[in-house]
Specification:
Length: 563
């Protein structure tokens, strides 16, 4: 049957199982929006900024494991997506971004709102397309979703000229995708897996580092089987949080710049590192030349480009994490590492990292911990970037996959609110808490309007320290307290929330924290709490820039208790 390009796009999106899109209309995409009423199964959520749309699409993808979709018009609409596309690229989030383009005769002539968005996004997408004919639309969409969700997931951009939306063509949706040069390796090489099993069986001080790849391949159960069968302690990267239950006796929490001190010490003492679905990012490794200096390294990852890129690897295994672990687990000999686990327990006692000092002051660590206590850990936590991100990672205990969502690789401020919105759309029955800094929150604060319009019961905790907190911490520790451009004024967030039709509370005292969180939980709709915390509270532990992973700055105050 003959359809116009906009209708072909809608039909193709339905074929790919798309239910929700986040976006903003504009001149180049009006023909697409014009046909949306014909497709009631395609829900469109109108955000207040394109950055909100793209972060919401990533939050949706991260919470649900499906491809997130965002829409923007040509020119500034498309360029406003760039930050979020880069975030999805670095964090391996499946996404398809649909952008409008000027009509084909105007391309290359500097027409109004023309921009070469395929050129701009070439380094930050798995692939991108400029659709030059309506007849190509279905095939492009089929390929785009296949690329976005397979192998190492990531964003794909489809740029569509305005007149292609209007042009008619026969609609035929391809049954299969056959892309020369794109054949992700799923099954790991049997000989390499055997080598890995032998190293694991022989190791005395083995350690697993689990990254986001475990979550992407839905391999948490296989990871748990490996850890328990061989009695191997597990630490996670920032984005690997939730891949292994943190309440488990073998869990050592997060490693890296603000990871647990005992986790970093374990890396330094291990004789074998089993890196699973992680990329040895600099925030995880600290000084690379000193990372795991006494250990052999097994690295399992679906992306061959990551293996050996940062850290020398003894046994590389290219393949899907879940597929590899299923085979690997069959060759593992059950074993106890009593001395190793005992040593780690001793370090955990001597260097407690998740501590909340006894104080009447309102401190962020206490706020995050009370959110955990009130929710009993049954919530999706979406954080911003900076101090609030680290406190949310450290003081909430994550025991289920995909309950921790944060931007790790790019780290854009303003990620939290729209991403939480996307997570709530993806999982409407889940409790979703957005933990934000007062700086980052103001970058996408307008999405409160979207949350209210869509009646999304997102709970918002603003860790309001009146600073750009992480930069201020660096200025304090490494720049002699020269607080240049970090003191931060802001609005009355409760009044702003009220102006958007959202209920809110201001908390200025520790005794108010628990009841405020309970009030937010009991409220049927969205709710905002402005926690006005101690301005100069720091995140600890911390590995200073340029230091080795075991060279850790710990909480200097002595009056602390383990939580």
């Amino acid at each position: 049957m003959k359809l116009n390009g906009a209708q072909i796009l809608c039909e193709s999106l339905l074929k790919e199982g798309v239910e929700v899109m986040f976006g903003i209309p504009g001149g180049a995409v009006i023909p697409f929006y014009d046909v949306l009423p014909e497709y009631p199964k395609l829900r469109h959520i109108l955000t207040r900024h394109e950055q909100g749309a793209v972060h919401a699409a990533e939050g949706y993808a991260r919470a649900l494991g499906k491809v997130g979709v965002c829409v923007a018009t040509s020119g500034p609409g498309a360029t406003n997506l760039v930050t979020g596309i880069a975030s999805a690229y670095l964090d391996s989030s499946p996404m398809v971004a649909l952008t409008g383009q000027v009509a084909r005769p105007s391309i290359g002539k500097d027409a109004f709102q023309e921009i070469d968005i395929t050129g701009i996004t070439l380094p930050i997408t798995k692939h991108n397309y400029l659709v030059t004919a309506a007849a190509d639309m279905a095939g492009v969409v089929r390929e785009a979703f296949h690329i976005a969700r397979t192998g190492r997931p990531g964003p794909v951009l489809i740029d569509i000229p305005r007149d292609v939306f209007i042009e008619e063509a026969e609609f035929r949706y391809p049954d299969k995708v056959n892309l020369r040069g794109y054949k992700p390796t799923i099954q790991g090489h049997p000989a390499q897996i055997k080598k890995a099993a032998n190293l694991i069986n022989e190791a005395c001080r083995p350690l697993i580092i689990a990254g986001r790849g475990v979550l992407i391949s839905r391999a948490s159960a296989h990871l748990k089987e490996l850890a328990e069968k061989a009695q191997i302690p597990v630490i996670t990267t920032l984005l690997g949080i939730g891949s292994f239950p943190e309440s488990h006796i073998l869990s050592l929490g997060m490693l890296g710049m603000h990871g647990m001190a005992y986790a970093n010490m374990a890396v330094n003492a291990a004789d074998l590192i089993i890196a699973i679905g992680m990329r040895f990012d600099d925030r995880a490794t600290a000084k690379v030349s000193s990372f795991a200096a006494h250990a052999k390294v097994i690295h399992i990852d679906v992306d061959p480009a990551e293996i050996g890129k940062n850290v020398k690897v003894d046994v590389p295994i290219v393949g899907d994490v879940g597929a590899v672990l299923q085979v690997l687990n069959r060759d593992i000999t059950p074993k106890n590492h009593v001395e190793w686990v005992s040593q780690l327990d001793e370090w955990r006692r001597d260097h407690p990292s998740t501590v909340i000092r006894e104080t009447d002051d309102l401190i962020p660590q206490y706020v995050v911990r009370q959110i955990y206590e009130v929710t009993k850990g049954d919530a999706i936590i979406v954080s911003g970037v900076g101090q609030n991100q680290m406190w949310a990672a450290q003081y909430f205990e994550y025991n289920r996959p995909n309950t921790w969502i944060s931007s790790g690789g790019l780290g854009p401020m303003g990620f939290e609110l729209p991403a939480a919105m996307g997570a709530k759309v993806a999982c409407p029955e889940e409790t979703v808490w957005c933990i934000a800094g007062d700086g980052g929150f103001q970058m996408t604060i307008q999405e409160l309007a979207t949350i209210e319009q869509e009646k999304l019961a997102v709970k918002i905790a603003i860790i309001n320290n009146r600073f750009l907190g992480m930069v201020r911490q660096w200025q304090e520790l490494f720049y002699e307290r020269r607080y240049v451009a970090t003191p931060l004024s802001g609005p009355d967030f409760v009044k702003v929330a009220d102006a958007y039709g959202i209920a809110g509370l201001r908390v200025t005292d520790k005794v108010m924290v628990t009841s405020a969180i309970e009030t937010a939980m009991e409220h049927q709709g969205p709710f905002l709490i402005d926690f006005q915390v101690e301005p100069e509270e720091n995140v600890y532990p911390m590995v200073p820039p340029g230091a080795a992973i075991h060279e850790i700055l710990e909480e200097p105050r002595k009056e602390a208790r383990v939580v």
